[in-house]
Design goal:
- The chain is of the alpha/beta class.
- It has 3 domains: about 220 residues, FAD/NAD(P)-binding domain; about 100 residues, Flavocytochrome C3, Chain A, domain 1, CATH 3.90.700; about 90 residues, Fumarate reductase/succinate dehydrogenase flavoprotein-like, C-terminal domain (Methane Monooxygenase Hydroxylase, Chain G, domain 1).
- Helix content is about 35%, strand content about 15%.
- The chain is built from 14 helices and 22 strands.
- Strands 1, 2, 8, 9, 10, 11 and 18 form a 7-stranded mixed β-sheet that branches. A 4-stranded mixed β-sheet has the order 19-17-12-22, with helices on one face. Strands 13-16-15-14 form a 4-stranded antiparallel β-sheet, covered by helices on one side.
- The protein is globular.
- The two termini are about 25 Å apart.
- About 50% of the residues are buried.
């Protein structure tokens, strides 16, 4: 395959970008599962933007900065806030149906927001956005979507038959595993964009789907991208707690919008507790609420806390949260009569591949957008519902860059380049029957990360996790070298890489800040004070 633009991922970032880039050339989207399977598809709450008459850009900017605990980049925050309304109107023009009250856009409120500014489509906002974008993509002949294509690694000068230059950091496309044919193909492109989503599956309990194994983070790192702020993994405070073993599937999310509508966190005795931790109570930012829940569970020896929405009008629950109501009812909980058991679960990575305001990475011809990036928007803790906003604003920024620069750029002769790239070499590898090694390693990675690199950390825990993860990383690297690729093996390789990156970043930050809470260090929230944690891989051109 040869293409002008190659996009890895089919969530809001990748699809919205593809629609705009199709005006300039051929666009190829690859996705490891079905095209609708993405973190976007599971986003319940909504997308934050200034639409209310009592709201302003300055208020949204300040809320984002306050939540980010001194690590947000002001220029990036100003960008998403001021461009947000225009990008959301574009989504509406594409057919996204946001909920309305009496003919006006319904604006919800979530933790950390000082105004009602969450546009939503009941409690299935991501699914509605994904539907509209996929419908538009299907109508554009210049966009080709390939399902069940798993990105393995970037094509770089190391993969050339003849070394063209001394340049190390340049991307020519990717190697991808075609799951249906069981073969590895090379896809050559003028430009490659990673929009591959999150990494929640590195933890035992996550709101992310099974596909969220941190592939883009690991691919970018191995290809020479600078990686930043990986220590800041956001745990959503209210995932549905079910008394069963969960290792390979996501847990059900109870949207923050439920608390915005008046639901209250309580302990097993039915008593409120958030007032002890923050004056905003159940509507404090996610890092504060998650730590408070963790502390309450440890103090009392409980497995979970409860979310009480019994006092909310039943019509409002059925109108605004029909999916949550139906799901809970399916497992025997009537939210209008019973409290809902909840527990924090890994939800979102605030760190990732470092990009500039145009989505450019430090690797030539490689861009990135969405959760896989660190743009500077989220700082040490993401403000609720800013993630979909960031994805759509920065994907637009990439398209604007190409509209100004694409024709001026000297395009590669893709046919010649394709012949210059080495084909995938599986010589000496075998199909192994030792799949128990993969499943065991996967389970062990999740347990180590959950036990030692979760909501509460300390130096001893991080050191222990680091020793074990690095040992597993070496073992998996050797296993990978001699084994034919499979989805399970590729995901394991990426999970252990991401785990190592999170731990390395966490060990570098000698303070407690935002989502990185260290028992060894006091909490800091100095505004515009702290520095990003950067990890750079040394790439050899051979």
């Amino acid at each position: 395959m040869k293409t002008d633009f190659l996009i890895v991922g089919s969530g809001i970032a990748g699809l919205s970008l593809a629609i705009k880039l199709s005006e300039l050339g051929r666009v190829t989207i690859i996705t490891k599962k079905q095209k609708a399977e993405s973190n976007t598809n599971y986003a319940q709450g909504g997308i934050a933007s200034v639409f209310g008459s009592d709201d302003t850009y300055d208020l949204h900017i300040q809320d984002t900065l306050d939540c980010g605990a001194g690590l947000c980049h002001l220029d990036a925050v100003e960008k998403i806030v001021t461009e947000g309304p225009v990008r959301i109107k574009e989504l509406m023009e594409l057919g996204v149906n946001f909920s309305k009250d009496h003919g006006h856009i319904s604006l919800g409120k979530e933790g950390g927001h000082s105004r009602n500014r969450i546009l939503h489509s009941k409690d299935l906002t991501g699914k509605e956005i994904e539907r509209a974008l996929l419908h538009k993509v299907a109508s554009i002949s210049r966009i080709k979507v390939y399902e069940y294509y798993f990105a393995i690694d970037l094509l770089t000068p190391r993969n050339l038959k003849r070394k063209k230059s001394k340049e190390k950091n340049i991307c020519y496309g990717i190697y991808a595993y075609n799951v249906n044919s069981n073969k590895v193909e090379k896809i050559v492109s003028n430009y490659t964009i990673l929009a591959s989503g999150g990494l929640g599956q590195v933890y035992t309990h996550t709101t992310n789907p099974a596909i969220a194994t941190g592939d883009g983070f690991a691919i970018g790192y191995r290809g020479g991208c600078d990686i930043a702020n990986m220590e800041f993994v956001q745990f959503h405070p209210t995932a549905l707690y079910e008394n069963k073993e969960v290792h390979d599937s996501q847990v059900f999310l109870i949207s923050e919008a439920v608390r915005g509508a008046g639901a209250i966190l309580k302990n097993r005795d039915g008593k409120e507790f958030m007032h002890k931790y923050d004056k905003r109570k159940s509507l404090a930012p996610r890092d504060i609420v998650a730590r408070a829940i963790d502390a309450e569970m440890k103090k009392r020896g409980d497995t979970n806390v409860f979310l009480d929405m019994r006092h909310i009008d039943k019509k409002e629950i059925l109108n605004h949260f029909p999916n949550i109501y139906k799901h809970c009812l399916k497992i025997g909980i009537d939210v209008t009569k019973q409290m809902v058991p909840v527990v924090p679960a890994a939800h979102y990575s605030c760190g990732g591949i470092k990009t500039d305001l145009h989505g450019k990475t430090n690797v030539k011809n490689l861009f990135a957008c969405g959760e896989v990036t660190m743009t500077g928007v989220h700082g040490a803790n993401r403000l609720a519902s800013n993630s979909l906003l960031e994805a759509v604003v920065f994907s637009n920024s990439i398209s604007e860059y190409f509209k100004k620069n694409y024709k001026k750029d000297k395009k590669e002769n893709l046919t010649k380049l394709y012949s210059d790239i080495l084909s995938w070499n599986s010589k000496g590898t075998v199909n192994t029957e030792e799949w128990i090694l993969i499943s065991h390693n996967k389970k062990e990675i999740k347990e180590i990360m959950s036990d030692y690199v979760g909501i509460v950390r300390n130096t001893i825990r991080l050191q222990r996790a680091n020793r074990r993860i690095l040992m597993m990383k070496d073992e998996i690297r050797e296993f990978y070298k001699k084994t034919k690729v499979s989805v399970e093996l590729l995901e394991l390789r990426n999970l252990v890489t991401v785990a190592a990156l999170i731990i390395e970043s966490a060990m570098k930050r000698k303070e407690s800040r935002g989502l990185h809470y260290m028992l060894d260090y006091p909490m800091r929230d100095d505004k515009y004070f702290s520095k990003d944690t950067i990890i750079t891989k040394q790439i050899k051109n051979n």
